[in-house]
């Protein structure tokens, strides 16, 4: 799993697709911090990731899915199927 290098690209891709500038995140982040995230110089916490996604109007899993699978529909489908299977296995084991 190599999300570190693709999370910055995913963040920038979604931000631009939503027509948002880095300044649009000023309520949750500075433009300098956004730039650092998009250049891969910093990594957000889960709480910060949730705040950024809220500004973009997406679920955090959308951003993470793009980071891990890219935008190819087949790769997204395979990743989501893998995650679904892992969740089922985990919940089944918890119920024992």
Structure description:
There is one protein chain. The chain has 96 residues and is mainly alpha-helical. 69% of the residues lie in helices and 0% in strands. It has 5 helices and no strands. α1 crosses α4 and α4 (60-69) packs across α5 (73-94). The longest helix is centred in the C-terminal third of the chain and has 22 residues, at 73-94. The radius of gyration is 15 Å and the shape is elongated.
Low-confidence spans: pLDDT under 50, at least 5 residues? none
- Kindly report how far apart the N and C termini lie: 29 Å
Give the overall shape, derived from the CA principal axes: elongated
Q: Quick check: average pLDDT?
A: 91
What sequence of helices (H) and strands (E) makes up the elements?
HHHHH
Number of helices: 5
Helix content: 55-70%
Give a count of the beta strands, DSSP E runs of length 2 or more.
0
Main beta sheet strand tally, sense and closure: none
How much β-strand is present in the residues?
A: under 5%
**Radius of gyration of CA atoms, rounded to a whole number:** 15 Å
Structural class: mainly alpha
Quick rundown:
It contains five helices and no strands. It has helices spanning 3-17, 31-38, 46-56, 60-69, 73-94.
Write the layout of secondary structure elements.
Layout: H1 3-17, H2 31-38, H3 46-56, H4 60-69, H5 73-94
Helix pairs in contact: 1-4, 4-5
Structural descriptors:
96 residues; mainly alpha
């Amino acid at each position: 799993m190599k999300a570190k290098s693709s999370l910055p690209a995913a963040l920038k891709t979604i931000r631009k697709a939503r027509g948002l500038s880095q300044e649009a995140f000023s309520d949750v982040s500075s433009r300098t911090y956004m730039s650092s995230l998009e250049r891969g110089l910093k990594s957000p916490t889960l709480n910060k990731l949730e705040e950024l996604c809220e500004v973009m109007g997406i679920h955090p899993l959308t951003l993470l899915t793009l980071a891990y699978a890219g935008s190819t529909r087949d790769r997204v489908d395979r990743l989501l199927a893998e995650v679904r299977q892992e969740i089922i296995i985990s919940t089944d084991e918890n119920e024992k």
